[in-house]
Design goal:
The chain is of the alpha+beta class. The protein has 2 domains: about 1-45, no CATH class; about 45-80. The chain has 1 helix and 5 strands. It has one helix at about 50-80; strands at about 10-15, 20-30, 30-40, 90, 95-100. Strands 1-2-3 form a 3-stranded antiparallel sheet, with no helix packed on it. It has a two-stranded antiparallel sheet with strand order 4-5.
Length: about 100
């Protein structure tokens, strides 16, 4: 990891194939640093702590979707094979079958 010391309005440049990313220390106050970031289109800039929240939310959504897919597949399978909707056949006093 490269560690740099910057004063207010000092910046750094990250050179890249798709363009440069510029980071500037906009404000430094009481242990907090406000950064300004300029990057070419196509770069997603996200605070580090949000990355894990996004991953967790995506994981939970995927689990919920998987559960729904499993429920639907089970329901479709029952309908296709006829399980769950079976009819019982009984003999009437005349000997003819009757559906219930």
């Amino acid at each position: 990891m490269l560690v740099l010391t910057r004063k207010k309005n000092d910046g750094i440049i990250i050179k890249g194939k798709d363009g440069d990313i510029r980071i500037v220390a906009v404000e430094v106050d009481k242990g907090k640093v406000r950064l300004g970031i300029e990057a070419p289109k196509g770069y997603l800039i996200v605070r580090e702590e949000l990355v894990s929240e996004i991953k967790d939310a995506n994981r939970m959504s995927a689990i919920e979707n998987l559960d729904e897919i499993k429920r639907k597949a089970t329901t479709d399978n029952r309908r296709d094979t006829g399980t769950g909707q079976q009819s019982a056949s009984r003999q009437t006093p005349t000997g003819q079958g009757r559906e219930e």
